[in-house]
Records
---
Amino acid sequence: MDLDKILKEAQESGQTQKYSLRSVDSIEEDVRVALLKMLDRGAKPSGSLRKALLEREHPVEIVDQVIARFIEVGLIDDYALARELALSMSTRKGKAKGLISIELREKGFSKDAIDEAIAEIDADSELEAAKVLAVSRMSRMADLDNDVRSRRVAGYLSRKGYASNVVWAAIRFATDSLVK
């Protein structure tokens, strides 16, 4: 890293005081320590780590360099983390692919990591999850009129991100299974 370049950019941005007496190695070590502390609290996507480090006013070049090195050695793995979160959101929280994609994007994952993560969720498993949720929800509303139950479950499944064809297929399944 070129110290003169960093000092020039710091001077232009008004951060001369912060970097003028420090070497690039010292700044790099500060970024490395801050990044390790963030990762110590739990795995996070590289996008959110980068944003947090830049908010702490670390130089962009050094932040990018340290994050790239952490990715290279496997301390940051966006693809594995995205797969893990997508699986968790799908199985434990019953969310659909579309909503999972939106939430992963908000967390700072790249489009490639999101696409790979949600590719593992197929349409059949999504329909089965919607059916389980619909049966569970409808059975708790046994005292309500069938139309009211259907509307409430449709709203619930829609908020989970399921497409309308999946929602109504799940409601039909739940209604049939609860009648028997």
---
Amino acid sequence: MYSFILGVISLILGYVFYSKVIIKNFGVEPDRETPATALEDGTDFVPMEKQRNWLIQLLNIAGTGPIFGPIMGALYGPVAFVWIVLGSIFAGAVHDYYMGMISLRNNGAHLPELASKYLGKGMRHIVNLFAALLLLLVGTVFVTSPASLLQELTPGFMNYTFWVVIIFIYYILSTILPIDKVIGRIYPFFGALLIFTTVAVGIMLFAKGHAGNIPELSMQSFRNIHPQSTPLIPGLFFTISCGALSGFHATQTPIISRTIENEEEGRWVFYGAMITEGIIAMLWAAAAMALFDGQTLSEIINSGTASAAVSQITLTLLGTVGGTIGVLGVIILPITSGDTAFRSLRMIIAEYIGLLQDKLSNRFMITVPIFAISIALMFIDFNILWRYFTWANQVTAVTALFMSTAYLFYKEKNYLFTFIPGSFMLYLVILYLLTEPIGFNLAMTMSYYISAVLTVGIIYVFFQQVNKVKAELNTDSVLINDHLQIRDIFPESVR
């Protein structure tokens, strides 16, 4: 119990203190006009107040990841707390903040465009492919998981297929309509339900005396106690992603970088939302550990994915009525990430092919094929989709962190804030690919060494590239003058 409480306090202190270091290193310009006001178009570039931006950002990034992931991560025991806390403070929140602010400085550009600009033009095509794959998988998975939960709460005629159709209709509307017309209006209600569920689970965990069952962190916690003996490294870092570090967030932050009215709001909106997600992850991991032993939890998950564990946790802690409301709160998370996943994909494709999105017909041209592919993916097993999603997700996080490193390197800022977590996760994504059945399925011991060699090689190539680019920069380069007014550096963008 004390390890859990200390972890939550650490997350809060991380926001209070470490975020200030990160923000000072970036160099906020509070008087600089943001894309929301300079490029306002009534669809994607729409000024919105700070609290609404924070809430939308939180719901965008908090899919089933900070609930399903920590519940499955609880199979590793209290060592999961370590990754959630350290990952959120030093990796996830840093990733989200720099990605959001660099996007803001580049007119709300998405990761493929930013990777092309800061890592080299060839990266644009590669990152576009990964981003499209990731968002398609996320959007599809976030149709299946809420539909599965909803069919358990509703009458027989409202079955799985019924809810899939309803969710898809909502996703289409939220993808094509202006952000303030659908997402901006209904998210406050969704947010209230999410906050109620999270707070209620946390309170009842203590009120009913279950908190005493939360295991304490010790040296023994770092042994692998997973019931299926799934390796702690790299397993834990891919099981818990959205609650610690997630590349999916890199696809979501540009949505909000187009609605922020002042750069100073970035600390609360980007760094703060990730810390909040970390607290949500801590609560669900703690609840899973407190209510079930590892073997029982494993059997529940295997019987119906992590959604089965969610149902049992909420019913146990909140009772029948409260549990039903609690499950609805959990359902909100994937839905409010699925909608913006498809919206992000539309915007990324539009940027890639150079198609303006001010006309509804143009938005339909991209939206229809996206949903046709997503419907086709519905016929693939959820567990297969999830395994590919986890790897593509962390590859995207590595890309965003190295893009941020390049950005800071060119501007002669301290790039270690992003380089260290980026290099750590680079090693893990290579190790995962080498050892997992979806990859090369090699022996773990040998893969440790191969991954280290490949990581060093990639880092060497990275610094060769950024040093070459930096040597060619001059004092007028946009790469180092993004702090100037949009009208001065991107006059062609201002209408």
---
Amino acid sequence: MLIFSKSLVKYIFSVYLFFFSHDVLYAQVDSSLMYKYKKVYNSLSNEIMINGSFKNSVLIVEQFIYPSVKKDDFYKEINYLKNLSELQLQSIHQKKQRFKDSLNNLTNAAIFSVISDTLFVMGDTAIYGHLPYHYNFNDPQGDSDWTNTFVIKLLATHKGNCRSLTYLYKILADELGAKCWLALAPNHIYIRNYSKQIGWYNTELTSGTFPTDAWIAATGYVNPDAIRSGVYMDTLSNQQSIGLCIMDLAQGYIKQTNNYTDSFVLKCCNLVLQYHAVNPEALLTKAEVLKRMYLKQKEEKNPVAQTTYNEMEQVYIMLVKLGYREIPYKAYQKWLNTAHQDKEKYQNKKLNQIIKQKN
């Protein structure tokens, strides 16, 4: 019997409702909507404060935007992938473990296979089949449809981007008790892993490869100062990962209301910066919010305008000192093509050799 996970497919038919009424929503910023956003903010604030569940934090944001996606359906899908990963782990866990962290490494390998490979795994009573997830080249940044960056959309369509793919990987790792870390590069998120045998290595889910640090830095517009300051290519703690979800909520607020100048987005940025002082998105968004607040205050001849300007200036100066810079759109497109067409040129040769020996 061949079994494929099918829950959440109904999501495809409801996911565009938000965008069909997008212009209407822009015009309907009211106290009721603000109350809902504050309620979600409070839930995420609690999650980050108690170092809670990354999985729940992702769902809190995505389900808020699309209430038709049921929590039980999401958990059912994640549980299916967890069980599939466990079955895959059993199928590759045959040789004697040489290191204390060998089980962790094999678990990460199983998760990688579930996300990147076509699998047919024997269970107790059935053969479980699963198709790989692919990169969405049509709308990688969610410019035409923001939900193309969501985990719930990835589960329904098997197409996603660096956000949804890495989020799903971390969710499964957390469910299985495996260690992995999210890491940032300009306009990009990837996975960092550690093995006693290999050391630190990178897992790139957009191309299903293991690129070297040098390649990520050289092709991804990563300033050496940004590496030293921890803005890019550093491991994120669980709380800092939850902080990414809080920034997702802030971006959702901006997209839905087009409102920068009230306190909500700034409140999100400040909360994230409490736990991740060099979060580039939080810093850049905060600077943009302060700039818009300053321009509005200046036009209204508000006496606090100069104070707002000084604060904005300090955030921009901090970004420069940290080595922050964005990757141009054309350069990002070139990076994507390179990542998929020239895989052999930038992969971790030591890791590939070990994988070949195990196979």
---
Amino acid sequence: MRPDQFTRFSATHIAGSMADCLCFGDPIRCQLGRDGRAVHYFRPGQIFAVVWWRRYSPDRQHRTLAIVEALPVNNAGRVLPGIHPGAAVHVLVRQCGPAGQDEAVDQLLDLIEDLKHRGRNPAEMPAAFWTDAAQELLLCQAPLESFDLEGVVCRA
């Protein structure tokens, strides 16, 4: 496949003020630029997660987490910062205020880490898993510590 047939995510980091980073995913290629920018390339159908973080002051920050799927070349997807071309969005949550407040982004990051701890690759989970998990977490149907990972996987 030619490079223009992949979905690209450009990760940017400016110390203390912003970070756009790959949370999980299995890129087929990653290029590191001299400016510190990393460009990750994904094949159509690959699922990956991105976190955008902005710090406005010590007590004011904004984080957004998206779990997306790379699309074939001519499929229209949702345009998100740093992702080109657009992608299919399965989860999009945001959180204002400091980390550790146990809000949407924190909870999904905890779930991702729990999957990794259990030996599961979050990028291999089906899209329906992420949609169901986000709905359960956001609707407070199940606290994270009692989250039925296997039940959600079976339903997805």
